[in-house]
Amino acid sequence: MSASSAIVRGTLKLNTSKPVCVMAFDFGTRQIGLAVGQTITASGQPLAVLKARDGQPNWQQIADHIKQWQPDALIVGLPLNMDGSESPFCQRARKFARRLQGRMVLPVKMVDERLSTAEAKSRGERPNSYRDKPVDSEAACLILETWLQDPGLGLAP
User: What is the pTM of this model?
Assistant: First the structure.
């Protein structure tokens, strides 16, 4: 953990005078999108789309990305229904977030990801070509930028 952040009872306290690196995940049962960004510019960049098997990620691949980027915190999208209630998939996303926090020993927050995939698709070159070019990492970037704009939106896993 860098000097620019500290963990206090599992929460992330930010020192805005120094950049804090944050990694975000768009969790899915077949694919998991990754993005990375930092607090100085409040922007992110898509990183990768990792394969998953029935919601089980390749934890070594995730650990490798974390080792490379050395984030101070992790953000996971929370797939709420349009009315704000929890979707059936929320439980799986929360389980992933808790496992991520336990395995990587970093603070994890969850952010409402409603419409992030739809927005990522609409920003793409060919909005209907999801099979040809998955947008999971772009969706992770939108989730990350939501949190960077307002860290108070972060929820516990």
Answer: 0.81
Percentages helix, strand, coil for the chain (3-state, rounded to 5) are 30, 30, 35
Taking the CA atoms of 95, 98, 104 and 107 in sequence, report the sign of the dihedral they define.
positive
Q: How far is 145 from 83, CA to CA, in rounded Å?
A: 22
DSSP 51-115: EEETTEE-HHHHHHHHHHH--SEEEEEE-B-TTSPBPTTHHHHHHHHHHHHHHHTS-EEEEE-TT
* Model confidence at 87: pLDDT above 80: yes
Percent of the chain with pLDDT over 90: 58
Quote the DSSP letter at residue 28: -
Q: Does domain 5-153 have CATH number 3.30.420.140?
A: yes
What are the residue ranges spanned by the domains of the chain?
5-153
Contact 77, 87 (CB under 8 A): no
The phi-psi region of residue 142 (left if phi > 0; otherwise alpha if psi is between -120 and 50; otherwise beta) is alpha
Q: How many helices and strands in the chain, by DSSP H and E? A: 4, 8
Residue type, 68: Q
